[in-house]
Amino acid sequence: MKSRNPIRLGMVGGGKGAFIGEVHRAASKLDGKYILCAGALSSDPRKSIASGKELGLDEDRIYETFEDMILKESRRDDSIEAVSIVTPNNTHFPIAQCCLDAGLHVICDKPFTLTSAQADQLIEKARKQNLVLAVTYNYSGYPMVRQARAMIRDGEIGKIRIIQAEYAQGWLSEPIERDGHKQALWRTDPERSGMAGCVGDIGTHAYHLICFTSGLTPKSLCADVSTFVEGRKLDDNANILLRFDGNATGMIWTSQVAIGNNNGLKLRIFGDKGGIEWNQEHPNELIFSPLNQPSQKITTGSPNAKIEASSISRLPPGHPEGYLEAFANLYTEIADSIMDARVGRFANTHTNTPSGYDGKQGAIFVESVIRSSSSGSIWVNL
Ligand SMILES: NC(=O)c1ccc[n+]([C@@H]2O[C@H](COP(=O)([O-])OP(=O)(O)OC[C@H]3O[C@@H](n4cnc5c(N)ncnc54)[C@H](O)[C@@H]3O)[C@@H](O)[C@H]2O)c1
Q1: Mutate to test the pocket of ligand 1, among 16, 19, 62 (most ligand atoms within 8 A of CB)
Q2: Which of 54, 118, 200, 287 has the fewest CB atoms below 10 angstroms from its CB?
Q3: Both 133 and 220 in a single domain?
């Protein structure tokens, strides 16, 4: 097998009516580095079969369960090499464990696992077998997020003082889970979502974005977590204060009851020489405000765009790139790591690509937020 041949991919979840599986499929296709060969696409076996047929998978490679897929694929000469996990949160750990045990690379959506202890187990399994273990914190794949990261690394905003991130959505402002809304049902169910609702679902994105761009990890936090919709079992809003080493301070606001907001993920970081601002709903712009100078808009085509940003843009400046392209950037970097692993090189080669380690940090964040809020919003160490 040639080491640069497309990766044979399997998928768990992402059947008819599911959300993120379709995005993963599109992202995996964009640069031609994967071929979707097999799937266990739904918790309902009939739906899995129907969904696989609709996608044009070979009928003998459409499976009723992920266990069946992993077992039967392992007997084939042309077996899948990697699996995308796009199922509700509580299933990530057992599916990833089963994949790694079978020697398959794993691309898992966030939040990675329900606990940091589970994340540790998966990281160790992947390490021992030199398998890729990637977590799709997809916002880190935007060119302007890479630009922000590179500018901070190069000292362009100086020593970091303040980090503010918010992820505001409004779609859970009413109890739509009671009407059977597919995506709301499991996200508001502690059995399937985990110990947190909004904090795990989108707060972890904001948290990863902070760590990824700033290069800092909070050392402590203090969380005020609320459930505004009556009868809901998990949080739908949280205000979280953060403290970092070196006196930097920060805040995350995460909400799914912020009426009028869709995917309002925003990041602002201020240092002693300048500040940067990024807004996911206008992802191709980064505002840079150097001390005592006018603010500048940096785009992928600007003369001051760094190679970290321009190298992952596919289109000439002015043609909008967005969510799918950013997702595809991660898929392509993950593919490079898998291709390295094929020839015995170290698997998680891309330092940009979120890995099991980042997934574990997300689990620690969730655990810490819940520990803080359930103890009366005290400061806790991460
Ligand atoms: N990265 C992102 O921006 C992003 C966005 C949305 C969702 N997500 C994450 O992706 C995951 C899925 O979210 P979603 O919104 O697509 O959910 P969804 O409810 O739309 O889809 C989940 C799919 O998983 C299937 N499924 C459940 N258990 C299964 C099993 N044991 N075997 C096979 N299939 C099974 C369901 O039948 C369904 O097809 C969640 O962990 C979520 O947090 C990430």
Answers
A1: 19
A2: 54
A3: no
